Amino acid sequence: MPHVSPPRRRLLGAALALLLTAPLAACGGGGGRADGADTRLTVLAAASLTDVLRAAGAAYEKEHDDTRVRFSFAGSQELVAQVKQGAPADVLVTADTDSMDTLADRTDDPTVVARNRLVIAVAKGNPERLDGLADLGRTGLKVVLAAPEVPAGRYARDVLDRQKVKVGSVSDEPSVRAALSKIELGEADAGIVYATDAASSDRVDTVAVPDRQNIDVSYPAAVLTDAPNRESAADFVDWLNSPAARRVFADAGFQQP
Predict the structure, then answer these.
(1) 201 annotated as belonging to a binding site for a ligand
(2) So where does molybdate get bound (predicted)?
(3) Quick one: CA dihedral 75, 78, 84, 86, positive or negative?
(4) Residue 31 in this model has a pLDDT that exceeds 50
(5) What is the pLDDT of residues 194-218, one digit of tens each?
(6) 76 is in an annotated binding site
(7) Would you say the pTM of this structure is higher than 0.85?
(8) Which domain holds residue 243?
(9) Looking only at Cα atoms, what is the longest distance across the chain?
(10) Which of 38, 71, 107, 144 lies at a CB distance of 3.0 to 4.6 Å from 182, suitable for a disulfide?
(11) Residue 60 known to bind ligand
């Protein structure tokens, strides 16, 4: 039997150890995919979910270290158009059930993940001394609303119509965030926005809309039928109704489904 010198023996031992441990790493001991690449989910979501879904996405990634969640936020009507035009995405979350229903042939069954309410957003300190929806009909008051094809704009007009309040919007914005921005910048005196959006801004105050005048805002989420990552997308949608996700939504002021 040939003699093996100590240095050569150590080298052979190291090589053997490497051969034995390499298959273990390839089996996903680190939690990633076998090829070492992370799953990258693309989520199209309503603009009013910008802050809360970013927080939810970060929480999800901590629990799923092999998945990265990327968001594209816009008004729900724009998201619908993107899906119809074939935008590559895995999950859709809209600010109303009507928008989601128009894509029934392009999504799995949706599930509601959160709810919201409407408030009147006013300039800091409420200089116009607004007290309710009726005050939005004042002559000379600059009121901004989301566009009528946007869920927030449709909801706002519904509550105004029910109270028979006529409002001439100084501009119809493409999203509720854009409408809120007009008030923050002093370009409008008031507007009807989601409670959570107003709460996220330190540049506006709010006037409550009573429950009897308000409307229930639902946020449905669904996996897109052409999702590149269907299994991971379904897991993410399920997770959005988990206790961990509901804590994130509650911290942002959203109501439970």
Answers:
(1) no
(2) 48, 76, 152, 176, 194
(3) negative
(4) no
(5) 999 999 999 999 999 999 999 999 9
(6) yes
(7) no
(8) 39-115+218-251
(9) 105
(10) 144
(11) no
